[in-house]
């Protein structure tokens, strides 16, 4: 399986969920980083079409 064919959303959500479970204080930062990454990936992916 190639990482380029894997959708980034589920992987980012999994990492964010694990981080929140380990350190609940990171919730605000994890959510902010997740939203920024999804936004950037959406813009970059949309630019290729």
Task: Explain what this protein looks like in three dimensions.
The chain has 49 residues and is mostly helical. The chain has one domain. It is built from two helices and no strands. Helix 1 runs antiparallel to helix 2. The longest helix is centred in the C-terminal third of the chain and has 21 residues. The radius of gyration is 12 Å and the shape is elongated. The two termini are 23 Å apart.
Which residue ranges are poorly predicted, with pLDDT under 50 across at least 5 consecutive positions?
none
Rg on CA atoms, Å: 12 Å
How much strand?
A: under 5%
Instruction: Give the total of beta strands.
Output: 0
Name the shape in a single word.
elongated
Question: Span between N and C termini?
Answer: 23 Å
Number of structural units classed as domains: 1
Q: Which range best describes the helical content: under 10%, 10-25%, 25-40%, 40-55%, 55-70% or over 70%?
A: over 70%
Q: Helix and strand string, N-terminal first?
A: HH
The biggest beta sheet reads:
none
How large is the count of helical segments? Answer: 2
The overall average pLDDT, rounded, is 77
Structural class: mainly alpha
Topology (elements, then pairings):
Layout: H1 8-22, H2 27-47
Helix pairs in contact: 1-2
Summarize the structure in short.
The chain has 49 residues and is mainly alpha-helical. 73% of the residues lie in helices and 0% in strands.
């Amino acid at each position: 399986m190639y990482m380029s064919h894997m959708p980034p959303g589920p992987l980012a959500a999994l990492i964010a969920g694990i981080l929140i479970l380990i350190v609940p204080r990171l919730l605000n930062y994890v959510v902010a980083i997740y939203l920024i990454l999804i936004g950037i990936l959406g813009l970059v992916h949309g630019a290729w079409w």
